[in-house]
Each structure stands twice: as C-alpha cells, then as structure tokens.
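Notebook B, p. 112. Complex prediction, attempt 2.
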Amino acid sequence: MARKQSTRRTVAITILAWFIGLLMFFPILWTAVAAFKSESDAYTLPQNMLSTPWTLENFGIVQERSDYFRYVFNTVIIAVLSTLLGLLFAVPAAWSMAFAPRTTPSSTISGWGWLAIVFSCGLIAAGVLYANGWHPQNAVVGFLLLLLCIVPPTAWVWTRATTDTLLWMLSTKMMPPAGALIAIYLMFNRNGLIFKDWGWINLSEYNLIDSFWGMVPLAMLLNLPIIIWMLYTYFKEIPVEILEAARMDGASLWNEIVRVLTPMALPGIASTCLLNLILAWNEAFWSLNLTNKYAAPLSFFISEYSSPEGQFWAKLSAASLMAIVPILIVGWFSQKQLVRGLTFGAVK
Amino acid sequence: MATTQSQAIGKWALAPSLLVLSGWAFIPLVLTIYFAFLRYNLQDPDNTSWFGLSNFYYFITDPYFTKDLLHTLLLVFSTIVTTVVGGTLLALLLDQPFLGRGVVRLLMISPFFIMPTVSSLVWKNLLMHPVFGLFAGIQTYFGALRPIDWFGTFPLISVIIIVSWQWLPYAALILLTALQSLDEEQKDAAAMDGTPPLSYFRYIVLPHLARPITVVILIETIFLLNIFAEIKLPGVGGVAGNLTYLVFSQLNDANDVGAAAAGGLIAVVLANLVSIFLVRIVGKNLEA
Amino acid sequence: MGTIQLKKVRKAFGETVVIPGADLDIKHGEFIVFVGPSGCGKSTLLRMIAGLEDITAGEILIDGKDMTDTAPAKRGLSMVFQSYALYPHMSVRNNIAFGLKMAGETPEQIAPKIAKAAATLNLTEYLDRKPGQLSGGQRQRVAIGRAIVRNPSGFLFDEPLSNLDAALRVNMRIFIMQLHQDLGSTMVYVTHDQVEAMTMADRIVVLNRGVIEQVGTPMELYNKPQSIFVAGFIGSPKMNFVEGNTIGVRPEHIAISDKKGDWPGTVKITEHLGSDTFLHVDAGKRGQITVRATGESNYGPGDKIWMTPDAKRLHHFDAQGRVTKV
C-alpha cells in the first residue's frame, strides 16, 4: 500500500532530486561541453561557454597527437582478457564456497602453529638470501625458499572454514599496492629478479613491464577477490535443491555447472563481468607505474594531459570524454544489476 | 548440505584461486620484507648490502611520513563519513516517488564509472582552477576578488572532494537498494503505530541499513587506502600525499628500493590493522 | 522391484548426532510416510536414501544391493522436492527430459515418454512454457513428471505439498495416491502433517529426535501407540494426557453428560465444525481436556459437564513415556 502523498511534496522532491542528480552529473556534463569548444572558448567564463560555436576539431587533434584508438584497444584487451581469465578462476571457487561450504576447519594444527611454520620458513629464506646475496647461481635456491614461504600459508587458508577463506581473500585486496609495487616492479623489469642472464638460461631479452603478459594477469589478480565474493553471493541465492535435483537426474558435475548452474546464474555472472570490466578499465595505480607505451591503457593516455602546455583544456576534455564514454554507457545499461551485485549480499 | 564427494571437488575447485591469490599476496610480501632490510638503490643496483632496520628508521623519521600517514587516515575517514552520511540522505530522498526516477538514478551513478585519472584532471582544471575554473568563475561573478585556489590552499580537502564525488553514488545506490528492500508491512505497521519520522528512521530504517553500511565501509576502505591517481595527477603528492604516494615517490624519485620497501611494509601493517578490525565486523555480518 | 532397507543408518555432523541409528525395511510397492515434528531428522533420512547426504555409519540397500556410497542418480530413485526445484531456464518439456538426456537417451526415445507423462499429468498444453509461467499446482505436477519419466524403482517425496494452499493440497494428495495405485512403485513420503500421513500411508514411520519411535499402519499407530510421543502426534485433536501423563485418552473417546460421570469440568471454548464439535474443558486438577462431540453440541462456555472416558480406549504410559500393559 502506498501512503498518500501530497502533490506539493512530490513536486518539491522531484525538483530536489533532479537538482542533486544534475549536480552530481555536472562535472561530466561540463567536460562534455568543453570537449566541443575551441581552446580559447573553453577558457572563457562559464556564462559565455554555452553560446560560443561548437567544434569537433579536438577529437581529431587528440587522436592525431596521442593515438587514442591504440589506447582504447589496449584497455579493451586488458579489461576483457582479465575478466575472462578471472572468471576461469572465480567460477569454480565461488561454486565451491557456495555449494560445498565447509563449516569447520579440516586441519588440526593451531593458528599459532601455522604462524610459527610460516615465520621460520621466512626466517630461513631471509637468512639464506642474505648470506648469498642475489647471484645467478643461487637465486634458484632463493626462489625455492620463496615457494617454501608461500606454501604453508596457502595450505592454511585452504583448510579453513569457508567464511574464513572468503574473508582472507578479501583481505588480500586490502593489501596496499604500495607494498607490492617494488617487488612486482623488480619481478617484471628487465635485469630485475627474473628476467636476467641466469648463466644457464638467458632471460634478459624478456620483461613484463609495459606488456599485456604482465598487465592482464595483474588486472585479474587485483579484482579476483571482489569478483569471487560477488559471484559467491549470486550463487548463494540459487536454491541448492535445484542442483540436487540435477544430481538426482544424473547430471555430472560438469553438466550440473554448465547446464543448470551457469544458465541460472547468468545475470549474476554478467554483472560480475561488468564490474570487473569497469574496475579494470579505470585502474590507475598499476597502469601508471608499469606501462608507458605498448600496453598502456586509457588511464595512462589521460595522464599525458596532466602537465599544462599552453591552452589544453578542450583537448583534455575531449580526451577525457573519449576515455569515459564507452565504460559509462556500459555502466548505464547494467547499473540495476550491478548495484544489486555491489551490495555483496548485504541486502536480501 | 553437501556430501563428502562434493566437498572434495569443492576443495580442488577452490585451489587454483587460492594458489594465485596467495602467490599474489605472499611473494611480493616476502620479497618486500627482504628488500626492507637492504641498502638497495636502483641507481647503484649492484651495490646492495644489509641495512638492518635503517630503512625503517629513515622512512619513519622522514618528515613526510607522519604527515602522509595522517593524510591517509584523514582521506579514508572523511570520505567514508561524507559518503555514508550523504549517501543515506540521498537514498532517503530517492526512495520517495518522484518524476523521472530512472533518469536521476543514471545521472547519480555516473561518477562511479569515471576513471580516477579523468576525474582528477577534470576537477583540477575545469572546475577548481583558481583563475579559469568554473568555481572561480562563480565566485568572481558574485564579486569575489581572489577566488579560492583549491589545490593550492586546500590540497587535501580538494582530493577528498574529488574522491567523495566518485564514491558518493556507490554509497547512495547501495543504501537505496537496501531501503527499497525494507518490508512494506513493516512500513505499514510503523504508520499504524503513528511512528514519527525521526523515530521511524532511528528504530526501523537505520538498523535495516546496518549491514549494507558495513559493506559500503569495507569496500570503500579497500579502495580509499590506496588512492593514488587523485594525488599524483593534480601534482599534490608533496603537500597532500598519502602512504601509497610516499612509497611511490621513494621508488620513482629517490630510486630507493630499501626505503620504499620499508614504507610498503608500514602501509601493509596499517592496512592490516584496519582490515582485521573491519573484516571481523563484516565477517559477523556475513554469517548473520 | 523397489525394496529399500536401512541398516543401522547413522548421521552425525561433527559432534552433533542427527540420527543415532535407524533400521527400516521398506517392501516393494509400499507407500511409506516419514512423519515427525520439524528437526526430527525425517528429511535427513530421506536425503540419505536419495544419496544427497552422506551416511556416517550403517548401510542402505536398494533392491537388495548395497547402495551406501552410490551416486544419487545411480540408485534408481526419483525425488520430488519441497520447492519443486524445477530448472527455471528450461521449458517444462526440457525439465522433464533432462534426466533422460543425462542418461544418454536419444530424442526419439525421449519424446514418447514425455508425451505419456504429460498426458498423465495434464501438462500437455504447458510443455513449452517455463516454470515461472505456471501455477503452484502445475509446477508440482511438472516435478512429479520429472520423477516418473525416469521409470524409477522408487519415489522420494520431501514435503511436496507444503507450498500449496489447502484446497490444492487435498487434490494433490489424492492425485499422488492415485499415482501410487497406477504405478505400483515404492514411495517414501516425508511430511510433518499427521493428516497427510494417516490418509496416504500404507505404513507410517514416526520419528522423534532422529529416533524411529514406531513403525506401523495408520490404524496401528492410532489404536496402539507405543509411546506418549506417538500417541500425542497421531490423531487430531491431540490426545488428552491426565494423571501426570500416565493416562491418555483421545477426545473422541470421552462421553459427556450434564448429570454424572468420572471427571467434572467447565466448558471454556467450543469449536463448531459442523460434523463435530470440539469442547475445551477446564477439568480442575486434571488440566485442560479436549472432547470431541459428534454433530452439534448444545453445551456452551461456562456450562458444567461430566466427562467419562471409554475405559477400553485408555492408554497407559510409564514415567519414560513408554506404553505399559494393563
């Protein structure tokens, strides 16, 4: 039952809501207007800006100067491939947590026990590395030790109850990229930790800086916890009974996932993909730090317009508009689904 | 309930994700810990040596450190307060019936889709520029002689404004979705009881929003701790930098891997302090 | 064939024991109903037979073969779920055909089977619809159709009628009983509704806290309940217990008079059903007693009456709630 609303109140709310909506949208609108102005008009005071002639020249200049289309291509490659790659990992993981959840840890070693193992592994590794330094012949030992450092915590997480595993995944997203930047930079860089002349094999020809081979997995890893969580909340809404019915009907696990679960979860999977696409499209930290040319996405393309060089606002606006319009349209079309997914199950 | 067989399959289905995520989380962490104890400068990469705790000492005593730590916390805290309070008010407004709800919703959510690099440059130049910016124009129109130089005078506040603009839509729309899921019968019951609007909000709406608000806070914290483009592109890293920016500049400007690693570790510790606290709350909410 | 045997079947989730150990023999063609209050383990037991739930200990034999660790689909059983569990993205036809497809049957083999099932279930004109476009009763029939096309040796029903409204529930009850007569297959049916149990079952299995309290025909359970739990659970209105729960008597086995009798009392509330009248009587130290009077009763609230239980129909229980021979 809808409560009675006075017309006056509805009018007031309509005006207020539209005002705030337009206010929020205004910076984008203003950019769009400036993009179609000549440089000198873009600098004139606001009251004149709307009355001056419109022009398309900025878009041509931006394309000519910065090769916009290459950046769009790069962004699409990174966003789409990282999304697909992410799904490959996230769908089984989310399935597992939603439909085969573990309520109690399956391991009996206590938290402190594990912590001690991790700590001593790390200590040994650090000690050996310190004693030997980074020399080609013993770096292999170093990597083995590194492996030793990550296996126990992985095993620990693997044996936890489902909610703990999920929260651990989220906490990896909490890890500040600043903490990983140095390591990733040195691992990706030529003559860094991996791509150098090892003596028995020469990797110094290769590197992952400014390369899709580095950026795609990176973008995937960045968003993996979020998309696993989102998929998990979507999967949890699917009644287990339907999957059990499929099992009674003789469907194999493969058929259960491909013919029953996936079609039912399609809206959820779609909005998860879109979120991943949007996050990857807009990612800035790693793009700015690890790319500069061949694999640089739109974030980098825009950053080239950050240093003032004469009159550049119209061109900046045109470039900005070109960078945001594709994803804005995708976002508009999917916003209903997306927002529901972004509640991460907090709204029933 | 699942059978042992599906439990076993489930365990292996989870393994690939866990493996890549723990690789992603632990390998850089272990390496960073190692570097944090080295004297290691990229300008002289062959000359590394054990440096003990000196990197930490230099990083912490760096005058930028305390400032940037404070900036980090201020940025996260004020943005969350702004977006959650503003988002709740907006959600309450948008929950009312009015003309063109769908379009207003589209207008409202748009900033969320804008890439940080774009919003920082557009705000810095087109809106907040002290001479040609729109804000300055409006001020001049109303007779101000010296309009506010946003990024010059209030760099941190300017960053907070931009970031809040980006995240307000998220908070507002999540909370709106939550409001719309509020049981109609509960609304009717409150109306029958003659509940005044404020008590209705306090005792019925707010408890209903508790879960979505925790999720909003969690998600925003994750992203806000690592704000980078909104500080680097407007060029206010020196005056309004956060820890992420400080680590970046140690690596980029000073080429000092050791100090950057030490700073990264401090950022990790900070993030973990925040996340332990947050994840606990969210964990409780997830189980409920 | 369609025999199902449970041998010391046990279910525990970690420390929590849900079913300590159940033994049961289900004969071919029997209609067995598991009944009990919610949380008594009846659904768990059914799901263990289906293979959807692991068995902690003991074994399950279907048609004499040990199926304890067999995959659900390989047990030759079909199941109808409480929520129907139809595949929402498939048409009715594909919902029914899914199991056959999974079994590797060709479209030529499948088509006639679907046509036959649809005819039996009055679903022919709905075959191309999606489950979302069907009413509750139609969905229920699709769920049954999905179960029967596989021609199983036994059917499992998990509270299949609890989502239907009262009128439809009565119709579907009769429909399922008719189906049982026509197919002659073994059916195991879980419900919390004792009326469904009494009307449908060849034999009823009463469960309480994971323990089988009693197995028997509806009339055996009604006339000779082995425990106070079964006595209280079977029959409506509920049996009256007096004298510190050592004596039970059903409301329909109490005669009333306004002049003389064994137990005096005051009528508090009357419920008129037309065919019967239920009198809720305050019997002083004996507590509240429900009496069922045939037809219309002239007694109203406040009337003083005398009640006389039928001595041959009294049930005696010991302190543990087990029945005692008198």
